[in-house]
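Private note to self, pasted from the team thread so I don't lose it. Backbone tokens:
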């Protein structure tokens, strides 16, 4: 099985101009809208769900069963999902820095899976290489040629958690099928806490809300509508997939609920925002006004808070923000909006300030942490994320090549700071595994307002150049860097670096 035939790399009918870039502004992102056949629910009726928290037991063990479940997402309809423990989002795994965790996954789904901990400083063999498949329990592991490792039924991922407090997330990463499998529900939060963060006095407990933002489309019977021919175990040769640009849904979900509503006290809240959408970018804002005080990024605390009135978020990115609801009169309805959306997708969720000015002991210190600036050494690498031509076919490429799990594209040395330059043709959120990076420049200028701190995913707009400083440590082996538009990723926009 060669890479290209498995992928069914598309012969594209036209160039960029002929494809379905939604909206007229390129700022909106790359993707094509899938419309729901089910009637869309009225916004701000469904209560915001908070995923259950799982803390490691003896030996650091967390056990998760991946299974099919039917859940109510749209009121009155049943939606079959693939869920970690049968829920979407999966349980929030809550861990401490320096306390290793062993996550044992059991696959009771009808398809192979691969779990990746996004943002994890994880040894290569536990990182979730896309061809290291966990086959469904009972599946014959010897069937078919395959060039990754194979487990049947269960496998364990050992995470050292040797990294600072941050909002991580785990999601499926199976070769060619990350888009459909995450779409069906395989995504959850994984939080790391540490003493430094605990000492700050940030809002906590009920005033700390993880918010996973995704978009989906639904069929009339409530099932998820994803324009892919797969959910079978075996590949269909020569299948042509469309939706090359990426899949956008017309229903915005937060923690798996459509345009939910939550009651909040007139007090500060910590919102851990995650864009877990396949291709949709958001520009979040608060209506009738207000600001996000950003305290953290993908890789944990910023050095100092950064205030934003709008917050752009590409797929894979996290923003840790504090919003002070005491700034609104009690009884206010505060809507989290999306300035890149239209009609229903211009809204995300609502927060109702229902309680009397409540006791609030939380603070947002002016100094949060120390972020040591990385100084790049002599090694520079360029990574071009473009639509490319490969033989007679065209598809998404990195440096002109589609992903090949057998090829190594770079060999960075552990401990050395390198300068990586990302270049794009269209919107591509670039994600690097193993270690976070610092953004040095955007289009040859200062980084943007939301580029501060340690990032592992960076939003690149069309024809943009972003330079970052990156340093890999501790773990030798093969890791991925790729576009986090999941359809681009599935259509080969990935590369491999091997730390040496
Ligand atoms: Cu969030 Cu390589 O992935
Ligand atoms: Cu990752
Ligand atoms: Cu991309």
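Design output:
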């Amino acid at each position: 099985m060669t890479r290209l035939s498995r992928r069914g790399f598309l012969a594209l009918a036209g160039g960029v101009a002929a494809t379905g870039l939604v909206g007229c502004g390129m700022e909106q992102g790359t993707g094509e809208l899938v419309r729901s056949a089910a009637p869309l629910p009225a916004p701000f009726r469904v209560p915001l769900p908070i995923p259950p928290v799982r803390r490691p037991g003896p030996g650091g063990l967390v056990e998760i069963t991946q299974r099919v479940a039917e859940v109510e997402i749209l009121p009155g309809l049943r939606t079959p999902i693939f869920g970690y423990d049968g829920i979407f989002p999966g349980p929030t795994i809550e861990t401490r820095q320096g306390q290793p965790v062993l996550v044992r996954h059991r696959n009771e789904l009808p398809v192979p899976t691969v779990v990746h901990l996004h943002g994890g400083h994880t040894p290569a063999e536990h990182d979730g290489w896309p061809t290291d498949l966990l086959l469904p329990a009972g599946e014959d592991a010897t069937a078919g040629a395959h060039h990754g490792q194979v487990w049947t039924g269960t496998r364990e991922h050992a995470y050292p958690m040797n990294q600072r407090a941050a909002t991580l997330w785990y999601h499926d990463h199976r070769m060619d099928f990350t888009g459909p499998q995450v779409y069906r529900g395989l995504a959850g939060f994984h939080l790391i806490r540490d003493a430094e963060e605990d000492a700050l006095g940030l809002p906590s407990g009920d005033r700390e809300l993880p918010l996973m933002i995704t978009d989906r489309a639904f069929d009339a019977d409530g099932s998820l509508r994803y324009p892919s021919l797969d959910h079978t175990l075996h590949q269909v040769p020569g299948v042509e997939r469309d939706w090359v640009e990426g899949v956008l849904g017309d229903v915005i979900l937060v923690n798996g609920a459509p345009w939910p509503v939550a009651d909040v006290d007139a007090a500060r809240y910590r919102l851990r925002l995650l864009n877990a959408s396949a291709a949709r970018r958001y520009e979040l804002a608060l209506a009738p006004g207000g600001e996000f005080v950003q305290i953290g990024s993908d890789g944990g605390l910023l050095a100092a808070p950064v205030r934003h009135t709008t917050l752009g978020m590409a797929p894979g990115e996290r923003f840790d923000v504090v919003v002070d609801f005491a700034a609104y009169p009690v009884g206010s309805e505060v809507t989290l909006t999306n300035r890149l959306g239209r009609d229903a997708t211009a809204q995300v969720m609502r927060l109702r300030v229902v309680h009397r000015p409540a006791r609030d002991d939380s603070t947002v210190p002016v100094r949060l942490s120390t972020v040591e600036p990385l100084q790049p050494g002599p090694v520079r690498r360029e990574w071009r994320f473009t639509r490319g031509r490969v033989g007679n076919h065209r598809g998404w490429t990195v440096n002109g090549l589609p992903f090949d799990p057998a090829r190594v594209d770079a060999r960075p040395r552990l401990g050395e700071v390198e300068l990586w330059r990302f270049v794009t043709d269209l919107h591509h959120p670039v994600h690097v595994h193993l270690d976070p990076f610092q953004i040095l420049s955007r289009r040859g200028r200062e980084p943007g307002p939301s580029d501060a701190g340690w990032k592992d995913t960076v939003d690149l707009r069309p024809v943009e150049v972003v330079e970052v400083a990156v340093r890999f440590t501790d773990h030798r082996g093969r890791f991925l860097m790729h576009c986090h538009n999941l359809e681009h990723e599935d259509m080969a926009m990935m590369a491999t670096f091997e730390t040496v």
